[in-house]
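Re-run with default settings, no changes from the original entry. Doing this only to confirm the output is reproducible before filing.
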Amino acid sequence: MRQLQTVKDHVVALKQRDGLLTSNNQQAADVLANYFGEMFTREDEAGISYQEEMENSAWKDTDVDLSSASVLQKLRNLKADKSPGPDGIHPMLLKSCAKAVTEPLSQASFNVGIIPQDWKTANVIPIFKKGSKTDAAYYRPVSLTSVPCEIMESLIKAGMTSFLDENKIITDRQNGFMKQRSCLTNLLECFES
């Protein structure tokens, strides 16, 4: 149904630095990779101060709930129409085989200390926004990562977020990447003050 609802545009020809249009997929991929790479910034951590308020409350990786029950719940709540990652494991398969996959996934790399190579890679898909289809600036990258990895990441994130909330490590002024907060709530708080 999703395929019928959306129009899948393929990247045909992109303008290169010399002004010429790409003539094959490899050239188009190179143009997009270069553009997306230029947009990536590495922060200078020299000016960042870290709070030293965690004396009584140190993070322990055992605080993460990787129990079979929590993994099973995540598997059952998967969106079956999502795209698979580079490992080719489709969410529909994981959802339908949730009980069989739960135990191996809950005992996966976290306990062993090894992350599978497929979990470290992503398929980057360029999504056209609007404007000239020949300009790489009008595409945004979307990374398709391994679905089992996403499940484990979400469980680890939940444990870390819970720890940070309980120990009041994150300021109330933080709006980005926080549950029930957004750019809008940040603007509203700014407007109010």
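The CA atoms of residues 88 and 146 lie 8 Å apart. The chain has one domain: 2-47+60-192.
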